[in-house]
Amino acid sequence: MNIRALFKCVIDINIYNLLVSIFIGTITSALYGVISFFSIGILIGYLVHWYFKENEYYLYFNLGYTKLKLLRIVFTLNIIICVILSSFIYLISF
Amino acid sequence: MLTLKANNISKSFGKKQILNNISFECSTGEIIGIFGRNGSGKSTLLKIIHGTLKSDSIGLSINSNSINPLKVIPQKKIGFLPQDSFLPKGLTVRQAIPLLFENGDNQDKIFYSPEVSKFEKQKIGALSRGELRYLEVLLICNLSHPFILLDEPFSMIDPLYKDLIKAVLVKLKETKGIIITDHYYSDVLQVTDRNFLLKKGNRININETSDLMNNGYLNKN
After folding, report:
1. What's B122's domain CATH number?
2. Is the pTM of this model over 0.90?
3. pLDDT tens for each residue of chain B, 221 residues long
4. Which domain holds residue B137?
5. Contact B107/B98 with Cβ under 8 angstroms?
6. Which residues on chain A place their C-beta less than 8 Å from a C-beta of chain B?
7. Contacts A58 to B, Cβ<8 Å
8. Cβ-contact B50, B149 below 8 angstroms
């Protein structure tokens, strides 16, 4: 597993994801923003990144990562981030 | 020795048949050249073999072990250099090399390759076309994949970098099977062992430059 390459992919997708999720969280509620961060936001982030940087995906393909595998990794990491953040917010709210 | 066999590859876009039951094989230790006019299906053929484009039909195997096209990427047996640059333009060469090679020894193979020290501190986006293509060929060809597909490695490259790329290919051919497609036919013919032309979806074997003329790829004048 090439951590540096995966880290770059996670950051690239999540930059757009974060913008989408903050927007959703602002116009609805923080909860929907968090849900977006590990669901629709990833998909939109991936589609936007693919649209602008399609060729960069050959870097990941040559490392053995398919698009589906990359999305699974981003999804898993974002779920973990959301659980940690939610727990932290829950704890400090008491 | 490993042998990659691609059998009965067909692909059509709408009603237009681009590839019609194309079959060929490539073994480690040889370089194969694919020629064809624009739109003849050269890049399409490479993308299908690499598993990034769906075909109408395909049979792929390495040493008689069948490979599901969906498993080509995860199995890391076939590397692919696309026509356009795949490296992130905002990174420096020093930052980009570890993206593909985590191991220090493998990184050193790239860093200590001829000419790389001249541009290793530059950003990818600031490299000349020749520097960028040479770097990309070095990166892809030094991966562990036994087979490498190169889509237009010589396109728009100055003669010095072309020579460097050819030297890389000839050296790595000892352990890999390489498939090249490019319009710079004289450069391709200098390094390849076998060649074929794609014309109207079919495969035509090419042994010398005159075959390219006789089959309408080059002018006879």
Report:
1. 3.40.50.300
2. yes
3. 899 999 999 999 988 899 999 999 999 999 999 999 999 999 999 999 999 999 999 999 999 899 999 999 999 999 999 999 999 999 999 999 999 999 889 999 999 999 999 999 999 999 999 999 999 999 999 999 999 999 999 998 999 999 999 999 999 999 999 999 999 999 999 999 999 999 998 999 999 889 999 988 888 76
4. 30-54+71-214
5. yes
6. 2-5, 8, 53, 55-59, 61-66, 69
7. 52, 80-82, 86
8. yes
